[in-house]
Amino acid sequence: MAQNRAYEVLYIMRPDLAKADLEETINKFQKAVNESGGQVVKLDEWGLRTLAYQIKHLDKGYYVLMEFTATPDQVRRLDERFKLDENVLRYQVVRQE
Question: What is the CATH number of domain 5-95?
Answer without folding.
Answer: 3.30.70.60
